[in-house]
Amino acid sequence: MPYSRTDLETEALEALEHVWFIQRVEATARTEYTLTLRLYIRPDLFVQAFLGERSGALYFALIEGSRRIYGVDRESGTWHVHPYDAPDTHLPLTEAPGPQPLLSFVADVESVLLSHDLL
């Protein structure tokens, strides 16, 4: 069964409930086939998640200010990562995030936040 907007929302709410650094969740855009969410860590630092159900595109980014500082994307069925030290780079992801990709990304974000003293 394909990953849906409902799946993304469910994971975001689970993150809000269980992840210590997520302060609030906001839907910033919604259409019949797409959903964009922000999971706020602080006002200028958040996880942005986008799902396009028709294309299967799934984008996760850690945003500080107005720029991506880390990300993981699925385009055309292929996953890649935008590493913290080079966020404009696309590197193949050797392992797909699993059945709960947003929660997997949020776990990676925790490591990034702690190792780069972003909290």
Write the layout of secondary structure elements.
Blueprint: H1 5-18, E1 24-30, E2 34-42, E3 45-52, E4 57-64, E5 67-75, E6 78-82, E7 91-92, H2 101-115
Antiparallel strand pairs: 1-2, 2-3, 3-4, 4-5, 5-6, 6-7
Description:
The protein has 119 residues and is an alpha+beta fold. A seven-stranded antiparallel sheet has the order 1-2-3-4-5-6-7, covered by helices on one side. It has two helices and seven strands; from the N terminus they run H-E-E-E-E-E-E-E-H. Strand 1 (24-30) and strand 2 form a beta hairpin. The protein is 24% helix and 40% strand. 24% of the residues are buried. The radius of gyration is 13 Å and the shape is globular. The mean pLDDT is 93. The protein has helices at residues 5-18, 101-115, and strands spanning 24-30, 34-42, 45-52, 57-64, 67-75, 78-82, 91-92.
Question: Can you give keywords for this protein?
Answer:
alpha+beta; globular; 2 helices; 7-stranded antiparallel β-sheet; 24% helix; single chain; 119 residues; 7 strands
Tally of alpha and pi helices: 2
Major beta sheet, specifics? 7 strands, antiparallel
Shape: globular
Class based on secondary structure composition and strand pairing? alpha+beta
Secondary structure: number of strands: 7
Question: How would you briefly describe this protein structure?
Answer:
The chain is of the alpha+beta class.
